[in-house]
Q: What sequence folds into this?
């Protein structure tokens, strides 16, 4: 359990680091877009090699397929709810809604860390790197919007610390859920996390990376995929 808390905190710490970077200076959109693209590519690799493959090996195709559908639907409707209160916009909406959007993105990512630890696989370095990197541009961009909307640095940092704490709890939740249901439902759980991550990637990370970095986003995504795939193979 404490391993889940520790590694969850390591992954989520980039949310606070990104928030601090966002309030101290402005960042070029292309840089943020390339980091987003790298993170998206790394997460796609993790979905492929850390979730789908292991889910198929543990339970077969049907549980993974059902989990994919359930995870995609859960994230889709959760994202629509957050978007309705301004969680995907900046400017005047900056503040709690933006933090809610980031938290929604982070929950499935962090839960996967806990699931892997509960299965006795140890920490996935590839997934840890993917989550850490993908958190940075979102918190940098959102904290910059909050600063421009007149939020104080103290308020921004406290808000993102709370978001990071919720993400740590998501890691613990993934660990606990996997411990309770056991190996029998491993494929379903892996599929659920994969479905949520894929919808998040397609709905927010990839479009934003393309918007900010144009064609460079695709190159950085392939680089992120290659790095994460190599780390998965090495471990």
A:
């Amino acid at each position: 359990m404490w391993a889940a808390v520790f590694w969850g905190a390591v992954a989520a710490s980039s949310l606070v680091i990104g928030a601090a970077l966002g309030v101290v200076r402005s960042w070029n959109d292309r840089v943020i877009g390339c980091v987003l693209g790298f993170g998206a590519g790394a997460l796609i690799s993790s979905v492929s090699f850390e979730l789908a493959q292991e889910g198929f090996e543990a339970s077969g195709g049907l549980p993974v397929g059902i989990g994919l559908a359930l995870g995609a639907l859960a994230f889709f409707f959760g994202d629509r709810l957050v978007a309705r209160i301004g969680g995907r916009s900046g400017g005047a909406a900056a503040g709690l809604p933006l933090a809610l959007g980031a938290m929604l993105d982070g929950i499935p990512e962090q839960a996967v860390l806990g699931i892997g630890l509960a299965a006795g696989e140890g920490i996935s370095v590839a997934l840890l790197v993917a989550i850490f990197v993908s958190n940075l541009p979102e918190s940098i961009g959102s904290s910059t919007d909050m600063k421009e909307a007149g939020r104080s640095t103290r308020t921004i940092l406290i808000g993102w610390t709370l978001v990071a704490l919720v993400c740590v709890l998501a890691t613990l939740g993934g660990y606990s859920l996997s411990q309770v249901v056991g190996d029998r439902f491993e494929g379903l759980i892996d599929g659920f996390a994969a479905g949520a991550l894929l919808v998040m990637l397609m709905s927010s990370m990839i479009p934003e990376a393309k918007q900010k970095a144009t064609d460079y986003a695709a190159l950085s995504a392939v680089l992120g995929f290659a790095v994460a795939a190599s780390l998965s193979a090495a471990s």
